[in-house]
Amino acid sequence: MEKGKLIYKLKEFHVLEIYQVDFYNSQIKSLEEPRIKKAFERFVIREKEHADFFAQKLKELDSSPSKVISPAFAAAGFITGKALDLLSLKDRYKLGISFENKAVEMYQSFIEMSAKDPQLNELNDYLWHYMIDEEEHQFWFKEQLSKISNSNH
Ligand SMILES: [Fe+2]
Ligand SMILES: [Fe+2]
Questions:
Q1: How far is the CA of 147 from the centre of ligand 1 (A)?
Q2: What pTM was estimated for this model as a whole?
Q3: Sign of the alpha-carbon torsion through 77, 143, 46, 40
Q4: Model confidence at 82, in pLDDT bands (50, 70, 90)?
Q5: What is the CA(151)–ligand 1 centre distance, in A?
Q6: How many domains does the chain have?
């Protein structure tokens, strides 16, 4: 993969991960149930690990993370911060699912791209592992959502 393109992708993923850190972090304070709160705390640790990895890769290429939100992300129209506090638990779960869906999609395409370049073997492994982390988040939200939905019947 051409170096400029690789740097662009790494920056895009760094933004994605920072966005996820903020997304979960901003909700922790307003969560009361320990099981849910601890799950969000755990997600934040994972997303930070992902963000740090992309920052490190950029550093190795003599670049650095960008603060500009990637078009793919802005277009998806996700909200963060105070607006989230006003959401019901059900809506947070739904938002979490669509958010993680978007992340998984982005990982899938980066995995395909990097698989074509033998020099990116190591990066490709990390991308797979991180995508599986995102899928686990997605499954957790789906599970919580189905619990709420079932108890409403
Ligand atoms: Fe992540
Ligand atoms: Fe995630």
A1: 24
A2: 0.88
A3: positive
A4: low
A5: 30
A6: 1
